[in-house]
């Protein structure tokens, strides 16, 4: 049987559910027991239900499906992607440790490593390098963690994940990967030896712009510690209702990703032919400098990419303000198409154009291609480009 069919159809809980064809919502905070002995017996069973900060059947069902989809042994859901990523990081690092991360990882992740954890005696190195040799050169005797995220947020640089992971294994360094962009449909980091995978469930996995959530997936041993320590002690749990929305989103994840991929490639190729567009940056295009590395890692490409307009800041403003279907917003992965003019972030984005490094922040637009008709999306871009 197809892996997705098998995982998605299995809605078994431990209690009778009257034949419900869809997952049930357990919106309760606590679970009562019939007797002193039953209470005492369950007290030390990590799988038993006591209190919904720890275990909740709806959340646990989601965790079991996400673990299977990522080929992991276990998973823990959290109230946001950042709660998941920070729990994964805290489960690995101690005072005196050193962590290596790319310069273009999700900004809050970089802030935890480089700013927040500094107070707890953690050292961090941020790299431009996408190849193994750059990561090798950054290793110190106290390097404990590689934080991987690929492709990068705005420029879609691809890390050589297989080589960097082999290096980490050789040196006894733990690896965590933020796999939000690819989703389990297009990449399974645990399969290449990465130790922990984190996702923001707020993007494609829930898929309807109505959930903020996160998950960490990995071996039973690593998850046991995360459940016992970072999840239970910091308490950043996912609510059962949000877990139910993610369970519903999961049922269409695979077909949504296929459609996002198809529409996005169509739009990216269309934009490559437009004179007002200077450069389209999409790892699935032959023009991307790391296209062959990307295609050797990922089974497909999601709906996020960037392009550089042939204009200035005023032209970029005119362009995004003229869009009718694309709306201006952060985040991604929902039904609706979004455009993010990177200039609003006010951080320089160095990029090599025609052999010269330039700051492209003023003219770089990142788009999340939604599930609207792809022809309509191309036409929307075309009419807005006329206003540049
Ligand atoms: C959105 C995002 C996060 C953070 O997730 P939240 O659910 O918003 O906390 C982390 N990493 C990446 C790559 C993201 O896009």
UniProtKB/TrEMBL annotation:
Highest taxon of source: Bacteria
Cofactors that this protein relies on: pyridoxal 5'-phosphate
Keywords: Pyridoxal phosphate
InterPro entries in UniProt: Cys/Met-Metab_PyrdxlP-dep_enz, PyrdxlP-dep_Trfase, PyrdxlP-dep_Trfase_major, PyrdxlP-dep_Trfase_small
Protein family (similarity comment): Belongs to the trans-sulfuration enzymes family.
Name of the protein in its database record: Trans-sulfuration enzyme family protein
Origin species: Cohnella boryungensis
Lineage: Bacteria, Bacillati, Bacillota, Bacilli, Bacillales
């Amino acid at each position: 049987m197809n892996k997705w069919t098998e995982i998605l159809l299995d809605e078994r809980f431990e209690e009778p559910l009257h034949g419900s064809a869809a997952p049930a919502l357990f919106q309760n905070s606590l679970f009562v027991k019939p007797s002193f002995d039953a209470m005492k017996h369950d007290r030390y069973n990590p799988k038993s239900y006591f209190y919904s900060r720890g275990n909740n059947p709806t959340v646990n069902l989601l965790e079991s499906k996400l673990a299977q989809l990522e080929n992991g042994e276990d998973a823990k859901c959290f109230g946001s992607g950042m709660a998941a990523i920070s729990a994964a990081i805290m489960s690995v690092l101690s005072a005196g440790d050193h962590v290596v991360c790319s310069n273009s990882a999700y900004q809050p992740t970089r802030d935890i490593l480089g700013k927040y954890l500094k107070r707890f005696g953690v050292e961090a190195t941020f790299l431009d390098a996408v190849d193994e040799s750059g990561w090798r050169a950054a290793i110190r005797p106290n390097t404990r963690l590689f934080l991987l995220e690929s492709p990068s947020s705005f420029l879609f640089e691809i890390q050589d994940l297989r080589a960097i992971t082999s290096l980490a294994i050789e040196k006894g360094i733990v690896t965590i990967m933020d796999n939000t962009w690819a989703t389990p449909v297009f990449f399974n980091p645990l399969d290449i030896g990465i130790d922990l995978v984190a996702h923001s469930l707020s993007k494609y996995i829930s898929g309807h712009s109505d959930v903020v959530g996160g998950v960490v997936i990995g071996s039973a041993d690593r998850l046991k510690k995360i459940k016992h320590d970072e999840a239970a002690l910091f308490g950043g749990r996912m609510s059962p209702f949000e877990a139910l929305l993610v369970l519903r989103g999961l049922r269409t994840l695979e077909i949504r990703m296929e459609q996002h991929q198809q529409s996005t490639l169509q739009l990216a190729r269309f934009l490559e032919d437009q004179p007002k567009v200077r450069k389209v940056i999409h790892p699935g295009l032959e023009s991307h400098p790391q296209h062959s590395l990307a295609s050797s890692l990922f089974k497909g490409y999601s709906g996020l990419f960037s392009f550089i307009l042939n204009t200035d800041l005023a032209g970029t403003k005119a362009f995004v303000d003229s869009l009718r279907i694309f709306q201006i917003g952060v985040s991604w992965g929902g039904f609706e198409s979004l455009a993010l003019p990177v200039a609003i972030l006010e951080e320089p984005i160095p990029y090599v154009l025609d052999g010269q490094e330039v700051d492209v922040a003023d003219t770089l637009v990142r788009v999340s291609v939604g599930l609207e008709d792809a022809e309509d999306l191309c036409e929307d871009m075309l009419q807005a480009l006329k206003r540049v």
